[in-house]
Structures are given as C-alpha cells and as structure tokens.
Amino acid sequence: xxxxxxxxxxxxxxxxxxxxxxxxxxxxxxxxxxxxxxxxxxxxxxxxxxxxxxxxxxxxxxxxxxxxxxxxxxxxxxxxxxxxxxxxxxxxxxxxxxxxxxxxxxxxxxxxxxxxxxxxxxxxxxxxxxxxxxxxxxxxxxxxxxxxxxxxxxxxxxxxxxxxxxxxxxxxxxxxxxxxxxxxxxxxxxxxxxxxxxxxxxxxxxxxxxxxxxxxxx
Length: 218
Ligand SMILES: [Mg+2]
Known about the structure:
Layout: E1 9-12, H1 22-40, H2 44-57, H3 67-74, H4 78-84, H5 95-102, E2 108-113, H6 117-127, E3 135-138, H7 139-142, H8 149-156, E4 166-170, H9 173-182, E5 186-189
Parallel strand pairs: 1-2, 1-4, 2-3, 4-5
Helix pairs in contact: 1-2
The structure holds magnesium ion.
C-alpha cells in the first residue's frame, strides 16, 4: 500500500510511533513500582497491583499522561526519575531517516502527542527529534487527550490545511478511532510500538509495523 503524501500535513505521534515505547513501559511498569516498593516497604506484587489499578482508573484521560498527577499521587518526582533513566530513551530504527527525507519534501510536519511538556523536554534533549517539526502540539496545552474529539477540534485551528489533507501516524487504536471519526484524511496505525514485545494485531491495509516503512512512499 502506498499513500500520496506531497502537500499533506503529516501528524506524527511521539511515543511508540517515533520513539520506542520500551522506555515508557519499562519506566511505568518496573522503575515506578520498584521505587514505591522500596519506599513503602510493601511487597512488589502488592505495589504492582495497586499501581495497575491506579493506571486503569484514569486510562484514556489527560491524567494518565500527566506527570504532575502521578508525582502527587505516588509522592515521587517523576521528572527527576525520568532524567535519571533517560539513557533508555531511543528513537525507533529508521525514524530519523524518515523524518530527514520528509523534511526535503513539500509536506508539513507536526508532532501531536499526549506526552507532558516536562517529559518532552527530556525526550527532545536526548533524541533531538523535535528539530524536524513545524510545530509541536501537546494535548496538555489543549486540556484534552488525543482520545477526545475536542483535541482534534482545537488542533485544526492551528493547521494551515483542512482535516481531509492530514495524515495521522499513531500507535494508539483509540486515538486512531477518534481521529477517523473526526474526519482526519488518513490514519495509519503503527503496530509495533515496543520493540521488546510482539506487534499488535491489525488488519487495516494502512497499518505499518514501523514508521520506517513510510520511506517506501517517498
Ligand atoms: Mg503513542
């Protein structure tokens, strides 16, 4: 499957799409529980259960992505912990080559992310990936996560093109569904956000295992 991308607005998700989600999965499912278990002296299994429940309770909302929320809830400095573990933050193989090639084409490149602005600082410092984008739209500035149609309504106010000429590339199926319902022209699902795990199942002809496959469209 090939898609015409010239003169389009390409809306790239960050975590799992351009960056390997392995870092975030490790961080939230291992680093945080270990820290909390050490501090509370509770067994790690119990802490894990409590944490998974806490994550589940706010799944799909802006709080799920908000380090202020989690720092307060866990009484941990999530920003400092992220900095401490930043060596594990990495770009998906081929993603930088793709952005490099796209930046030579007549396309608009936007980063559309649920990541918190403080986490973005750490990730940009580490990967320098922000330099490829015309603009960066964190859902925290709009007050709605990308899972909400309000995010897309707000975003469109800042884009030079109409929604039909936008292409979203994202690994989150709920986000893809919302963007599709809103009327974003094309939605491409990335099926292997975390390279340490097996790819997600997806029958959509526009799904890609990795963004690097988009290099064939150029
Ligand atoms: Mg993602």
